[in-house]
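FAQ: What does a multi-protein file look like?

Like this. Sequence, then tokens, then the next protein.
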Amino acid sequence: MAVIIRPWTLNDLPNLTLYANNINIWNNLRNYFPHPYTEADAQAWLDKTIDASPLVNFAIDLDGQAIGGIGLILNSDVYIMSAEIGYWLAEPFWGQGIATEAVRQLVEYTFYYFDIVRLYAEVFETNKASMRVLEKNGFYLEGVRRKAVFKNGLLMDDFIWVKLRSW
């Protein structure tokens, strides 16, 4: 099983459309990730990311097939030395260590190519698996923003996980 993160391509359209259209994935993401996720949504995402510079959004690839996405939000102004990491993985591949490996690769990429000191992820209180992925990659729980997330009619806590560059 070979897991890599790689740039998105137009060939990823069918898998992106198929795997991203899942309520269980949407439940763990911000609302700007659409649900239902249509072919038009997938095409718009690919149009936005394929030629983007700098390269900050990647497909999670398993044996040549896109099965999820991972990326960075580079901050600006006084937060310029920080970036947020986000990711999702197709449900059939949950629990196999794939997200853990994808996060490892993105952390390595980020600290190599960007002058970033602080990587962080915000995780909804219900997403324990994602918290474990981050913990396995050396992130630590920095804090909990109580009742900060409103999703599906529920008010939830937002867990902030951080990894600092080591010199």
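And here is the next protein:
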Amino acid sequence: MSDMAVDTTGIKNIDSIQTGELCKEAMFFAKDLMKENAYFISKIFMGGTFNEIVAEGKKYFKEVKVFKPKSSRKDSKESFIICRKIR
């Protein structure tokens, strides 16, 4: 599970892209270490790289879902990507 995020700048596009790159790197690292039915969960922000990250997840995992916790503020762009069953 990755709850990593970069220090935010207040510029939503930049923050989204930088955190998206961090999410992708965590996914690439984890996929090489995971067993078949393991889960990869990471913080993800809605923004310019969101669809790219979900597409990357679908390349490496059989199941990919995006989840926004009820505890997250409605105006927050924060969600989590949940990936399961490595390909």
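Q: Is there any per-entry metadata?
A: Some entries carry free-text notes. For the entry above: The chain has a mean pLDDT of 88.
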